[in-house]
Design brief:
Layout (H helix, E strand, L loop, with lengths): L1 H10 L13 H11 L3 E5 L1 E2 L2 E2 H11 L4 E6 L4 H10 L3 E4 L4 H10 L9 H5 L3 H15 L3 H10 L5 H8 L3 H15 L4 H10 L8
Helix pairs in contact: 1-8, 2-3, 8-9, 8-10, 9-10
């Protein structure tokens, strides 16, 4: 669920286009070899294997693409291991989506983006809150994420439903589910959450 949701967010962001996704080393390496993406966002928790194995497999296949490791862990030893294997960035899953997109945009061959929590430290209470927000966001379906981005705008429900190609009734059902999963009861709370995580859509 988290992978599909993140794919949907990245694919809708300016300057990015998702060409594929997989949850296993074998399928991912074959897909990467075929599509030759500029960036690989590698989850360390793949089906039955570590994402490090994927990086090692890609290295044997030829020059590595830009690789950003995605994980919920913050062990400095793991960070060092990812860098040694050839990763260009270490991104935690509880980071706001806007920060993730910003880091992906800064990747460059041979470069390394040092994790923020190693640079500045992190308040334990703040980290706990971010993990809770990440868990809530991960619970949303890809369609609910699409609705969430439009619900956070000043569009009327009829306009938002039209942009999403769904009925107003369906949008209201999604809104009810989103509010319940995120624990919100006001639109202002929803808007603040979306702005924090870079999820607000723009009119077009």
């Amino acid at each position: 669920m988290f992978r599909l949701g993140l794919q949907s967010i990245i694919d809708g962001a300016e300057g990015f286009s998702v060409v594929g996704g997989s949850d296993s080393v074998m399928k991912a390496s074959a897909e990467i070899h075929k599509s030759k993406p500029d960036i690989v966002l590698c989850d360390l928790q793949l089906r039955g294997e570590s994402g490090l194995r994927l990086i090692q497999t890609l290295r044997k296949m030829g020059p590595l693409p830009l690789i950003a490791v995605l994980t919920s862990h913050d062990d400095p030893r793991l960070v060092a291991q990812c860098k040694k294997e050839g990763a260009n960035a270490f991104i935690r899953k509880d980071q706001p989506v806007l920060e993730v997109l910003e880091q992906l945009g800064k990747l460059e061959p041979g470069g390394w983006i040092r994790p923020a929590f190693l640079r500045d430290g992190e308040d334990p209470k703040l980290a706990k809150g971010k993990r809770a927000e990440f868990a809530a966001l991960s619970a949303l379906s890809p369609r609910e994420l699409d609705c969430l981005k439009w619900l956070a705008t000043d569009l009327k429900e009829e306009e938002a439903a039209e942009r999403l190609h769904i009925s107003v009734h369906t949008l209201k059902n999604h809104r009810k589910s989103i509010y319940k999963k995120l624990g919100f009861d006001t639109k202002s709370a929803l808007v603040r959450f979306c702005h924090t995580h870079g999820l607000s859509s723009t009119r077009s």
